Structures are given as C-alpha cells and as structure tokens.
Amino acid sequence: FSNSSSNGSGGRCSLCPQSPEVSFCPLSPEVSPCSQSPEVPYIVSTTYRTAYHFQPPRNWINDISGLMYYKGIYHNFYQYNPHCALWCWGDIAWGHSVSTDLVNWIQLEPVIEPDNPSDIDGCWTGSATILSGGQPVILYTGVSRDNCQVQNLLFPKNPSDPYLREWTKAGNNPVIQPVVPGLNRSCFRDPTTGWIGPDGLWRIAVGAQLYSYNAALLYKSEDFLSWTRVDHPLYSHNLSNMWECPDFFAVLPGNNSGLDMSVSIPRGAKHALKMSVGYFDKYLIGVYDLKRDAFVPDTIVDDCRLWLRIDYGDFYASKSFFDSKKGRRIIWGWSQEADCRSDDVAKGWAGIHTIPRTIWLDSDGKQLLQWPVDEIESLRTNEINHQGLELNKGDMFEINGVDTFQADVEIYFELTSINAAEPFDPSWLLDPEKHCCEAGASVHGGIGPFGLVILASNNMDEHTVVHFRVYKSQQKYMILMCSDLRRSSIRPSPYTPAYGGFFELDLAKERKISLRTLIDRSAVESFGGGGRVCITSRVYPAVLADVGRAHMYAFNNGSATVRVPQLSAWTMRNAHVNVENG
Ligand code: DQQ
User: Fold this and answer.
1) Strand pairing class (183-189; 202-210)
2) What number does the ligand 1 atom closest to the CA of 189 have?
3) Which atom of ligand 1 lies closest to the CA of 92?
4) Are 20 and 86 spatial neighbours (Cβ–Cβ below 8 Å)?
5) Contact at 8 Å (CB) between 313 and 535?
6) Locate the Glycosyl hydrolase family 32 C-terminal domain: which residues (predicted)?
C-alpha cells in the first residue's frame, strides 16, 4: 500500500474541509436553493446507487424522522425533498416507506409537506410514539417564518390502516413553542419518542441551545396534546455544538433484548442519551434518576471529543425504536453522499439510510454494541468459506467467488501473540481520524495493521482499507479500527478521509477480533470487535464505473503473524427498496 494518493486529496485527514457544503448545525436559510438538474450521465445514475440500502427512487433524503412497528408493518418516516436531490430551505417534507422485514420497502406518498404557518419553511425531524391505547402519534419540528422552530403534532387519519397512509396535522399546532428564557428559537428541534415516567405522565426531550448550553430540554404531558416544560433539562452541556436529534432509551447490561420506553423500565436498567453533534452521533451511558427526573451519566467527561460514537464514519441523525415484533431495540442513521452536489444533482438522488442495527449494552455497562438486523442475511447468496489461514507480515489473501461490489464479509482475526503490541497514547482518542492517517495500512506495526482491502483496482490505484491495530495501555489493550478512504477513488471530487475509532478488548481472555463489512456499491458499513466500533463510509471508485470488477483481500502488515480461523463471505442480492411502479 501507499499512503500517497494520486488524486491530490491523499494525506488530507481533516474531517470537514471537503465535506458537502451544506451545514446542518445550525441550519440556516442561506442554504442554496435547488438548481436545474443537468442531463443525467448513465454512469452516475446507476453505478453508485446502493442495491440493498434504504433510499427513495429519487431526490434527497436525510434524517430518519420516525420509526415504528404498527399492526405488522415497519414504518420509516424521513426527511425528504420531493422536488430535487438537494436539501433546500423550505422544501423539506416527510417521506414514508413501509416494510414487513426491514429489508424490502415500499414508498408511500409523503405524509406531510410544509403548508401551514407552523411548518411553512420545513417539516423537520421528529419521532413517532405509540400511546398506551395503541394509537400512534408523531411530534415533529416545524419551521415557521424567520426560522422559528416549534413542535407540532400529527395523527393518523385512519388508525385501522396498518400502512398509516394519511396523517392530519393537529388543529392546535404548534403544541410547543420556543418561549423559554435564554432559548435560541432557531435551535429548538427534533423531539424524541415519548416515554412514561413513574408518575404516569409522558415525557419527551427536545434538542436546544439555551444560553451557552446545549441541552435536551424535558417536557411533560398527560395526554400528549398539551405540554409543560420541566424546569431543568434532561441533560445539558456547555462545551459542544447544538444537540440535534436526541434519542433517549433504556438498556440492560449484557442483554440484547430491547426495552419499551412506554412501559415501566426494569430495575438494573441503564439509559443511553444520544445526540447528533457536529458531524457525529455521540452518546453517554448513565442512569435516569427518577427523583430528579434527569439523566446522570456514569462518568462526566467534559471534552465531548472523547464521548463514544454510535458510528465513527459518515453517519448522522440516527434514531432508535423498540421493535415489539422481536423484542429488540433497533437503531439506524442517515449517511450522506460524499461526492459533490453537482454529482448528486446528476445522479438525481442523495442520501441513504444505513442497514438497521440491533443495539444493546455490553456486559461491562460502558458501551453500546450494534449488529445488522438478522433479516439482512436473507439477501446472502454464493457463500464462500476459508478456515485456518495464516497471514504473515506483508501477506495479502485474495477473496474470490463473491460479487465484490455487493458483499457481506465476516472475518475472525486471531492474534498469535500479544507481546508485540505497541504502547498506546491516550491523546489519540481526541482525534482517531488523524491517527488513522498517521498509522495507515502501509505503516508496519507490532500487531497490525491487519484487515480487509476492498474495492481494489488491478494495480491498487484505488482501494479502501478497513483495518485494526492493537496497542497496549497499562493493564488493558486498545484496538484501533480504521476505514481509510484516502485511496478509495481516483476521481478528485469525493471526500476521502480516514475514519477511525478505538475500543477496549480483554485480549488476555479473548484473542480474536472480528470484522464484518457490508459492501453495497457506494456504501461500506463495518462492524469491529462484535459491534464495538462501527464505521459507515461512502466511496465512489472509478473501478466500479469503468471495469465493473474489483478485488478484495484479507491482509496483515504487522510484524506478528495473525491467524484467520474463519472467513465467510456472501454476495448480497438486490433488495426491493422503494422500487417505482412501472
Ligand atoms: N436535519 C433536520 C433537522 C435536524 C437536522 C432538518 C439534522 O430537524 O436537526 O432536515 O440532520
């Protein structure tokens, strides 16, 4: 491998400079309007479109805005621009798709569009809640004139329709206004799903900027119609950007069953507070102190760069829901395009949702684990297996027999010795992307780098690397996982950072590190260490457009030999995702 890139963007590791120009925090009316779509080149319109990730047939999507399982049907409501492939001020409506298996989706009509003084400049993110009698409701942020953000209520017109095709805006909208002293009324949005407190009242949290604090403001209601603000936030912090899309849910340590927030939560449960902040979805684990009606993190970490992330890559505005069909909690997020906006206009679409993931708390009670929902395995075909491989320093083992553009790959790496682990520097935790740039796949280490090279052209001009490195830190081992996109495309325009995250592993007990990578044309989702670190990446290799064939390898570039006791890979079939009729 080489870290230097022929496209002029290699070695560039800062996260933001080339990210798409639209800034989502805080959103401002200056975001440029839709431009006329140029002629759509064939290549751009089909090559990078995902085959089994969620996306509408055309146009722009962003946040997951409401999720629920209702009368046998999964519902995904999302931020959607019905008019074009860009996020445009004033256009954002709620798209709606339904599924019976979380894999195949049917797109229905948008459920709401901006047409009312309380949402005339946009129907922004919100959440669905199923009330005690089984009635679904939605609370969403409406943007009224002058970017004043309010919270509005929505009811299904016909609750006996399992598809919930039509919704009515409540007559008394907005039900919550930004009237709190010190509240920035343009930073007051994204209400959570409701939960029930010990007093039987409903609660929701809303992301907000209050004086110099960023907060999840807490509101209470008896009937979900009229809301009173609790005089303190659920939680707040003064050293971060605005918290968008907060999510609050209960989890049981070491138990992957989900908990329903609209019934009482069992003893021993912990709570997770997730917020979308800057470019990442971060979370804190703690307890919900019922007396104070507040979230109390287990550890106070002032520097929000050190907060754990749901995903360390291109993943934002995630939302979770309790799946009553299978008794699990599922989370998924939005992954935006990393090419330029003119390419999005040319493609006619922009944005995907990640594969839905089951989410639960590790048995140590410190970190969330995620794994793609089992249903996605129904798309697997052409299984190939290898056992007992040994990868010495410099080895690359080619994985043949599957479609390398649409694949699911699971590998276990077994460390033959842990003595060669290099020392860990805690300052790396502040900027794992920078460390992934410095310690790329071509930089030999003690244990690692080892991992997977995907979407590689014949001469390796283009390739994406997902890899691990093992470090020793006092009594424990820290594993670095990177998804390095710096050589992912010879095209100059895509944003190609090296994403990364760290996780702890007790290597004295367990010598195996697992990696699962789902490749879906322009989307790559990787799950390291059984879902301890997840990284979603968007890639636009020319090899995909020009040659239609790419290579995939398992590799090791560390001095210690790494065994591969099990490697399995499958081709992934296309799912029926919002296919247009006719
Ligand atoms: N996207 C929505 C907002 C939210 C932001 C607007 C996060 O409600 O804060 O489309 O991506």
Assistant:
1) antiparallel
2) 8
3) 10
4) no
5) yes
6) 375-570
At residue 491 the predicted structure's pLDDT band, cuts being 50, 70 and 90, is confident
pLDDT digits (tens, 9 = 90+) for 461-474: 999 999 999 999 98
Six-digit token pair at 355?
């594969």
Does ligand 1 lie within 6 Å of residue 362's CB atom? no
Which residue's CA is the nearest one to ligand 1's atom 6? 124
Question: Based on the number of CB atoms within 10 Å of its own CB, is 38 exposed (0-12), middle (13-18) or buried (19 or more)?
Answer: exposed
Please classify residue 385 by burial: count the beta carbons closer than 10 Å to its beta carbon, then call 0-12 exposed, 13-18 middle and 19+ buried: exposed
Provide φ and ψ at 444, rounded to 5°. -60, 145
Q: Residue 37: CB partners within 8 Å, gap ≥ 6?
A: 84, 85, 345, 346, 348
Phi, then psi, of 437 in degrees rounded to 5: -70, -40
Contact 562, 416 (CB under 8 A): yes
CA 347/CA 339 separation, integer angstroms: 11
What does each C-alpha distance from 531 to 163, 214, 373, 469 come to in angstroms? 32, 29, 12, 16
The residue type of 446 is G
Record the tokens describing residue 488, joined without a space: 């992912």
- In this predicted model, what pLDDT tens digit does every residue of 74-112 receive, in sequence order? 999 999 999 999 999 999 999 999 999 999 999 999 999
Residue 123 near residue 189 (C-beta atoms within 8 A): no
Q: Which residue has the higher pLDDT, 46 or 108?
A: 108
Closest CA to 538 of 499, 576, 571, 503: 499
In this prediction, residue 449 carries a pLDDT of: 98
Classified as helix, coil or strand, 341 is helix
State which ligand 1 atom lies nearest to the alpha carbon of 242: 9
18: pLDDT confidence band, cut at 50, 70 and 90?
A: very low
Token pair, residue 335, equals 């992954």
- 61 ligand 1 Cβ < 6 A: no
Q: How far apart are alpha carbons 259 and 441 in whole angstroms?
A: 40
* Pocket flag, ligand 1, residue 411 (CB < 6 Å): no
Residues 419, 423, 428, 429: what is their CA dihedral angle, to the nearest 10 degrees?
60
Give, as one character, the DSSP assignment of residue 430: G
Instruction: Quote the CA–CA distance of 431 and 15 in Å, as a whole number.
Output: 10
Is the shortest distance between the CB of 189 and ligand 1 below 6 Å? yes
Instruction: Give the whole-angstrom CA distance, residue 427 versus residue 293.
Output: 35
Domain over 59-372 is classified CATH 2.115.10.20: yes
| Cα–Cα nearest to 341, from 19, 41, 26 | 19
From 63, 260, 281, 520, the catalytic residue: 63
In CATH terms, the superfamily for domain 380-572 is Exo-inulinase; domain 1 (2.60.120.560)
> What ranges do the domains of the chain cover?
59-372, 380-572
State phi, psi for 203 to the nearest 5 degrees.
Answer: -135, 150
Closest by CA to 262, choosing from 217, 190, 202, 179, is 202
Taking the centre of ligand 1 as the mean of its atom positions, its distance from the CA of residue 124, in whole angstroms, is 6
427 Cβ contact list (under 8 Å, min separation 6): none
Look at residue 305 and give its three-state secondary structure. helix
Give me the pLDDT at residue 34, please. Answer: 41
Residue 49: per-residue pLDDT: 93
Active site residue 293: no
CA 29 to chain centre: 25
Q: Quick check: 111 and 167 in contact, CB under 8 A?
A: yes
